[in-house]
Design goal:
Helix content: over 70%
Distance between the termini: 67 Å
Radius of gyration: 21 Å
Largest sheet: none
Length: about 170
């Protein structure tokens, strides 16, 4: 049953990722992103990491995607015509291919030294809330605060961009 659920969630994530990239409507892309995050949360549940699954749903699905949708609707973004192939597309394909090659090489190196009996005996470590809290408030306190500050700056930038400046036409 776990294998079937894994394949369902994996196809859900891959399909929604393609929908995010190739969709012309920004709102539909954000909703596809929401479906992808729910699929990743399902994968976390399959890994017995319930805390990360719940945090992903609460923080990303509940807050970040809602903020994305708010920003998209506030800025009234319209989908434009996309060129089928450009220099940016070629550069993105090259970088994506290099990233995929690095990931495959890392997987080959990490599992290359294990035989089949050793690979099956690796015990996954479950989610431990005390361990996460210790790491969050000791080792990773500064990065968490920096990310919070960057999110605040982004929010202020959205507010400034969304303001209607009526008096600027008369200055010219």
């Amino acid at each position: 049953m776990a294998d079937i659920l894994f394949h369902i969630f994996a196809f859900m994530v891959i399909g929604s990722s393609f929908a995010v990239v190739y969709n012309h409507n920004a709102v539909n892309s954000a909703l596809a992103f929401l479906v992808g995050l729910i699929g990743v949360s399902g994968l976390f549940v399959l890994l017995d990491s319930f805390l990360l699954a719940v945090l992903l749903i609460l923080v990303y699905v509940g807050a970040v995607v809602a903020l994305f949708l708010f920003i998209i609707m506030l800025l009234d973004m319209q989908g434009g015509e996309r060129k089928p192939f450009s220099k940016a597309t070629a550069a993105a394909a090259l970088v994506g291919s290099a990233l995929l090659a690095v990931c495959v090489m890392t997987l080959i190196r990490s599992f290359g030294g294990l035989n089949a009996a050793e690979a099956g005996s690796v015990v996954p470590v479950g989610a431990n809330l005390k361990h996460y809290a210790d790491l969050l408030f000791t080792s990773y306190l500064l990065p968490v605060q920096v990310v919070g500050f960057l999110l605040l700056i982004a929010m202020l930038g959205v507010i400034v961009l969304s303001k209607k400046f009526e008096g600027l036409e008369d200055v010219k």
